[in-house]
Amino acid sequence: MTDAADNIGTTAVRAGFAFDEAALEQWMRANVPDYAGPLRVTQFRGGQSNPTYRLDTSTRAYVLRRKPPGVLLKGAHAIEREARVLSALGSVGYPVAHVYALCAEAEMIGTPFYVMDLVEGRVFWDASFSDVPRGERARYFDAMNAAIADLHAIDPAAVGLADYGRPGDYFARQIARWSGQYYSDIEAGRDANMDRLIDWLHANVPAGDDDTGIIHGDFRCDNMIFARAGPRILAVLDWELSTLGHRGADFAYHTMMYRMPPHIVAGLGNADVGALGLPSEQEYLAAYCTRRGLPGLPNYDFYVAFNFFRLAAIFHGIKGRVLRGSAASAQARQRVEVLPELMQLAWAQAERAGSR
Question: How many percent of the chain have pLDDT more than 90?
């Protein structure tokens, strides 16, 4: 692998996702310092929630992220929040791409969008880091562990994000939000495993468990750009789900990779991690707790079950968009195909955690 474009992959703009490129070029001349055309637009194969485009000019390359076209669920596709958190974290040196400007008006290209730097590097879609020599893989895991711990160490108020979310009652609010979206998307249907998992989550929210900080919400290896050589993270991507929330739960979303089959999302489910040269789930958890000065995460298994539920709810939303015609890519359809299995796995995590 050589750079972000090679790894993520670009194609011609997909049907239904084109926009007025002349209007975009006019906006960039006014809002992006030293912009020089002409402009060539291609679309990344990732960015299922918010379509993502590569913008090439005669002198440099940029990335555009926008809300998808079509009818959207309330609160979803938070492009404006994504641009805000990137700018805030970049101000204190956290590894994110530089944001040039946000266009909140839909009239320009059909939906709100923002433009940021294209960060060149390596993106790993395989959580086993199979493209890295076995003896070096643990260092890549340690870099991810440090990056999420560093994020959780940032004081929201110090970077202007004190009002980026509501502190406290994180699980109750999140369960209500995602279950509400699940129930309201009639076209995407219902699933018995998901229904009983929602009931279980409501009944087992840990009392008095508050660990509020800035959270990413989708912290996975394929949402990071590493340096071409060595385990240095140049940019953490895809901040749409970021908010003020429970930091331990955010970490548990990341560690879902240990229980997630790789055909669903980048995961290590059923892999022999020791043979792969990777730390175990418990070793990885211990390293995070050490970095944060915590004795442990007593409710860790609940956090994992909650995150499987949340991911299943996200995939359920993708199913609704596929059925409504606003997510037509092969990757979106693959999400729909694995949704029943993901919901079954989510319920299995609740059974593993047990009841209080």
Answer: 81
